[in-house]
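User: For a benchmark we're assembling, each entry needs the component sequences followed by a predicted structure for the full assembly. Here are entry 17's components. Please fill in the structure.
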Amino acid sequence: METVGDRPVHVIGGGIAGLVAAITAAEGGAPVILHEAAARVGGRALGPAGRPGLNLGPHVLLTDGALARWLAARDIRLGLRLPAVRGIRVLGDGGDGLPLPLVARLTPTALPREAPAGMSFRDWAGQVFGAGRASLLCQLAGLYTFHHDPGELSAQFVWQRYRRVVIGSHRIRMVAGGWSALVAALAARAAAAGVRVQTQDTVTAAALPGAPTVVAIRLPAASRLLGRELSWPGSRTALLDVAAAAHPGWPSTILDVRSDLRTCCLIDRVTATCPELPGAGGGELFQAQLGIGPRISREVAVTRIEDVLDQAVPQWRERAVWQGSRVVTGATGAIDPPGTTWRDRPGIDQGDGLFLAGDAVAAPGLLSEVAVNSGIEAGRQALAARRRRLLPAGWPGADLTPERRLAVLAAVLPGAALGVTPAPSGGWPVQPVDQTGLGYRLTDRGGVLRGEAASAGPGGAQVTTLAWNRLPRPARGRLNRRLARWWGRRR
Amino acid sequence: MPLFLAVEAQVRCAQRGDPLAMDALLTELAPWVGQVCCAIALDRGEDAMQETLITVLRNLPTLREPKALRSWVRRIAVRESLRLVSDHRAVPVPDVPELPELAADGDLDTALDVRETLGRLSPQQRAVLVLRHLEDLSEEETAQLLGVPEGTVKSRLHRAQRSFRERWEEG
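Assistant: Structure for entry 17:
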């Protein structure tokens, strides 16, 4: 018997997903080789060469998301900036105005509710909020789907993102220095963890490295490399960047929701939050995005975006010093059509010791968080595969089931209470695999911990509830027991 | 040995009693602990995993150096697994009832084969096999962890490997 020894984990593709997968595998103790075809790592997270710090299109980070948590767990500190709230303009059919009327119209959407995956967002929102408000919500979904007609997508997909991006907009942060700063931090981390990065190293189908291998390149390229069908719908998006000499009184963000669009056009003056951006050359930088249909040319899209600038940014044409535009297809993350969820996308475990990572594979999250989540999972699975490789197939193992997990936490947290109730008929009260992909929910609100897990018990489906709080001793146990009972009944 | 850099910050938060950090740590440790426990404790592997994780979280504040988490958890996992199976001496040899054709190479048969073969080893032999081959420890480290002389590890390993290989090849 030989030992696992120095057998490496290979990662193909040095974008965000590939870097995260490589770091995860290296932190787990495996030697890792990262193969990157370009001269530098970063992939799509890097902007065009020659204009450092610049990305095509706006980029943000959400503080409750997988990327932010992953960075925090490693103590990787990026300069995070709050978006400029002053200077937001909304361009509607009646002209250019403040965002207040729009925000007021969105008030009824502030209450939490669940949306079905089987319906289109337009139909569902029409039923719940009425046709007028629904069409505005559909348009706003252009912000985070980059799609030309987001109303056609799955209601669950759009609604979950709306909740996080618009209702949770206080969690939005810009990364100082743009996403090049993020890539640099990831590359430094990879180096510290001992990842061997090989740039200008193109892997071909004929010379695939040995298992386990994480394939972290775009789906069409992965499809060619692995010789199997891997695809998922994405958006087609026009991106425009304009650098201009500074001018006082320009808005920080322009949102165009005029009714000739079924989506919205967003223009962000990035230098309003990150004035030191090197690519802007000391002036101002505008970044615009507009989802476009398959038959719209780049020229038409650019003209439409320039029209928004004409309406809201006085003298921009005279002051512009540089302008770049691009139409990208399938480069802005996965979109889920009605009847599908993220679980239906190409899976991470492709068999034969091959694992997929990227922003269009089966992992939860918003935009780049999909890349991070799938990178972590692919890295973990590659580690496990590496361990298993030299052991006979069928070597025993066990998963920590959700109810065992809650039992462990209940045993450890002083005074915690655990309740088990039969699930009501008519489906699972807690989705067997929820947003975290783990099959349970755990929330900590104001020092009160609430956990729920659904499982198949001896007498049919059952729900396990965990309650714990930080109150002083005598009150704590009683309250926890009561909470566990109450939460269990309410389901 | 493994860096486990990632978990360092998590460990510090969990040591201070943050339940969400504890939960994240469970996610990080569970698959690995499950493999170690199941290979030693077999049918009682899930219980051994649960006991291990409870012990780990309870005693986390005593862990001075988060970097040492992995070897610390490994020691607890092996100890808990051995404790559970030595409490129930009858358990470790599972009954494989009337298998029609053991030579077939289907996945289920393979899995049963491995379990059966592991089941015929003693818990201590399984522990040595796991530490040397799954965990990649040296003979010296294995001996230290199990608290036995290095020569004992060598002979146990030799016997475990031989019987494993024989039974494996026979199947």
